[in-house]
Backbone:
């Protein structure tokens, strides 16, 4: 794999770092292809329980590679189903994916962060959908996920003006789960990813699937789905172990079964 991505592990956590510093991690097609391969490889690895996706100190990602967009036409975007692989690829990962955002998360970079399950941000992070400034609109979920995360007023303001919001505003609005000093962000995200990895893998996957279904289902259907998944947890070895361990006042030993 080329150095557009840096891949590492820490305990049971897979770490993927976007590495195009000269272009502020702009998402070229080549970078996206490599990112999806890395995420899929960690998703299949039984030793990995969660994945942290990060960028550089200056930028998580400054969006789609604008140089590549200059040659895009309607016909080749439409016929090639441009962005489908990115959108479906990230959201099809079964294990939790945590975005650790330093610096700019703009356009496709903000959309990529929103495809992840949790966003942790450094105090210097900024989020925005500035596509209007270059004559286009968010195309990888920005108009749909941002409104669900921050509400219509803020989403419309960001998308129509192209203005960025700070990490502090993003946390207040509900886009970001936690803010860290920049030098503590990656370790903080890895610690939370390890904490999640220490739980039962099938239970974590069920919880993730239920929470994500809330974006697609009406409330009654979502509640029904949650209830069925809740019933299903009692078919796992880990639910027996977890409940017995509590009663016996000992730590649970998860077998992921
Ligand atoms: C394949 C698709 C993936 C999903 C896409 C879904 C649809 C999304 C569309 C978009 O994302 S459109 C792009 C939205 N993003 C932007 O408009 C941000 C563009 N960048 C900036 O406004 C600025 O760079 C900045 C982030 C405010 C930083 O400004 P600063 O003055 O600090 O640095 P620069 O000198 O501008 O940048 C350094 C270097 O990086 C290059 N660069 C920055 N962003 C991009 C980009 N999105 N694409 C390509 N290249 C980018 C910039 O050109 C500079 O390079 P050089 O000119 O020095 O070679």
Residues:
């Amino acid at each position: 794999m080329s150095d557009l991505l840096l891949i590492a592990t820490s305990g049971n956590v897979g770490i993927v770092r976007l590495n195009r510093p000269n272009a502020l991690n702009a998402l070229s097609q080549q970078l996206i292809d490599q990112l999806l391969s890395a995420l899929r490889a960690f998703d299949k690895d039984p030793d990995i329980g969660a994945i942290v996706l990060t960028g550089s100190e200056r930028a998580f990602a400054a969006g789609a590679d604008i140089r590549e967009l200059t040659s895009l036409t309607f016909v080749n975007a439409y016929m090639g189903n441009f962005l489908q692989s990115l959108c479906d690829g990230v959201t099809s990962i079964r294990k939790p994916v945590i975005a650790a955002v330093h610096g700019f998360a703009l356009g496709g970079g903000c959309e990529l962060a929103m495809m992840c399950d949790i966003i942790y941000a450094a105090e210097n992070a900024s989020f925005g959908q500035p596509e209007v400034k270059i004559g286009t609109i968010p195309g990888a979920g920005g108009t749909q996920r941002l409104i669900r995360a921050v509400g219509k007023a803020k989403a419309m303001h960001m998308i129509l003006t192209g203005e960025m919001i700070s990490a502090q505003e993003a946390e207040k609005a509900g886009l970001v789960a936690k803010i860290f000093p920049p030098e503590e962000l990656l370790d903080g995200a890895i610690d939370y990813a390890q904490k999640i990895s220490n739980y039962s893998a099938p239970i974590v996957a069920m919880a993730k699937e239920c929470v994500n279904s809330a974006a697609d289902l009406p409330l009654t259907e979502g509640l029904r789905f949650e209830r069925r998944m809740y019933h299903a947890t009692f078919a796992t070895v880990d639910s027996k172990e977890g409940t017995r361990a509590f009663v016996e006042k000992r730590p649970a030993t998860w077998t992921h079964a």
